[in-house]
Predict the structure.
Amino acid sequence: MTDRPRILVSRAIFPEVLAQLAQHFDVESNQDDAAWSREEFVRRLQGKQGVLTTGSERVDAELLAACPALQICANMAVGYNNFDVPAMSAAGVLATNAPGVLTETTADMGFALLMAAARRVTEGEHFLRAGAWKRWSYDMLLGQDVHGSTLGIVGMGRIGQGIARRGAHGFGMKVIYHNRSRLPEADEQAVGARYVGLEELLRSADHVVLVLPYTPEAHHLINAERIALMKPGATLINIARGGLIDENALAAALQAGRIAAAGLDVFEGEPQVNPALLACRNVVLTPHIGSATGPTRMAMAQLAADNLIGFLTQGKPVTPLNADSVAHHG
Ligand code: 8YV
């Protein structure tokens, strides 16, 4: 028997990261990537001091009450809408996320979806594979220009700024943004973006990219009324969380040609995708792969592991979300 801290790793992760964790902790892991129910997750978490989560395991007051030994939840994701942080603070449980390491990779994905949706890349591929490409015609698969257009970014954190830089410096776009708070002027200049209200952004942008945190206030931020403000030829990209968009309203707008196209990496009921969206030809759909490159996923796993090791062995997490409310118990 040892008195090493006990931790749970809720999903399969890189074996080398798991091996590092095993140097410090008694680890129970889910390397088979079994689909644990919530009940099974909570049962396995009981008696553990730490857990590595991957962004979809809900940590709330009920779970915390059932797991009194728990001291830290390390999310292998920058988004942490799966955590009830006030409840965690009240229970003295540290929350950490994985900011910084996935910024550029996820900004790349935002641009990939923007380009694909605006220029009808996947639609063109389906057309070709279906054998529908018989001859050239002047109006075959006409899309929307990206270069020189107006890019509207909702949410101007690290990833939003990465997208702004790509748009302003790489594609000569006029970049406008909306955010809870305005960036300092020097930062606005560095990324080449101008602050506007949400309505103005939706009215003026040719391409709208959502990259804001999903909070209860942001639920269905993009609804039928707001879609109605958008330009007829606009595109809408979402690389943040599915719940930001009323998907039925978006599908109706896409079907009606009210906006030109959308590019979605995230869905409200993922991995289930709203059938109304699946029925739209003018939407590019990807399975939440914004951060999915080898080096980036490795850096995310490493940061989550470093948070567990740093906190449980020395009381020093790397990227805490609620350090002020949590004392290290050793
Ligand atoms: C993750 C993400 O892949 O970091 C985030 O917030 O959405 C993605 O990078 C996903 O949360 C699973 O870890």
In short: Residues 294-314 form the longest helix (21 residues). The chain has two domains: 6-101+294-329, 103-285. The mean pLDDT is 97.
